[in-house]
């Protein structure tokens, strides 16, 4: 199964200057819980936004750069190659950035989206989720609190017609 996992604002903002715009500890915990032990596919800029590779996950990095060096990671030149290199029985998670998310919308089976209830200035955005292709299967609202500056909702979308 191919799952897109992201946190996006009301205006679909993902980040700015290769960094997150908000800090939601519960969302980080959920991301870790869902992706640990699995393959995570990302663009080079997303990978470079981490201080180090995320533990207990197989990193697949997509880049146009020849000879890109990322020790203990798989480096490929396209999303198609990234998916082809992963075991067919494995749960794959597409973790960003905006361009990789856009390329993944047609092939993904599921979207795990954290919708941050605010609009932000950003330079990277999550693609539109076409209602003709996706159905909102589940959502769970979380109000802001002392650890979370913004309200947010976990949303699970399922593809209507799985490719």
Automatic annotation (TrEMBL):
Query: Example GO molecular function term?
Result: NADP+ binding
Q: Which domain of life is it from?
A: Bacteria
Identify the InterPro entries for this entry: DHFR, DHFR-like_dom_sf, DHFR_dom
Which pathway features in its UniProt record?
A: Cofactor biosynthesis; tetrahydrofolate biosynthesis; 5,6,7,8-tetrahydrofolate from 7,8-dihydrofolate: step 1/1
Q: Which Gene3D superfamilies match?
A: Dihydrofolate Reductase, subunit A
Q: Which SUPFAM superfamilies match?
A: Dihydrofolate reductase-like
A GO cellular component annotation in the UniProt record: cytosol
The chemistry this enzyme catalyses reads:
(6S)-5,6,7,8-tetrahydrofolate + NADP(+) = 7,8-dihydrofolate + NADPH + H(+)
Would you identify the family this protein belongs to, as annotated?
Answer: Belongs to the dihydrofolate reductase family.
| The protein's name | Dihydrofolate reductase
